[in-house]
């Protein structure tokens, strides 16, 4: 509650206006809040309504044509659908990302994560960086934009984070028993204190930001409404990709902006 109060206070000091949005994508106070807490809830849309609706319709196509995949397993859809680069490479997105990780930006991945009413699975408590261990030389400059394709709330399984857990190092993990999920196969071993969790309740079209190292997860969808997010993950190209890691051999990463100081195998569009 204290963190939420502080953040609301920061926002109230400088109300948003159209002019302010044009001048400051993220305020210095917001960037400072992200660095301290590992997340940010800007409280505004990422795209225009028209542009968001195009993305929404693309997602609906992917959901309809997913084949044997579960609704939350639509990982790296941009690898087979180039239309998504309109959004992944958009200035509206990269201007936000640059405020967090600097001017040298690469696209790491994207993922449609859909929890259908009454059936969506829980997302185990985890750090994204734990699933990528060994794939980069470090993880302090990777950020995820989580864009709400549908309204997200506690009842339909919105994401929650443990504030300040992004600079504690890797947690201890264990295999998930009786698990048939293609994406999440391990979870944090020790119980997470959910009294400290900040839940990301987002209106459709709004977005959140979180550090790759922060502990986060989500409950199952117990409501009558669908919950979908589009995660867009970016890394500083000052980081160095481990080219010999098995999971990196076929993975495609893309140049977005700036210099490739880590000499990474980027794809230039």
Automatic annotation (TrEMBL):
InterPro entries: Phytyl_CoA_dOase-like. One of its GO terms (molecular function) is 2-oxoglutarate-dependent dioxygenase activity. Gene3D superfamilies: q2cbj1_9rhob like domain. It comes from the Bacteria. Its cofactor is Fe(2+). This is Chlorinating enzyme.
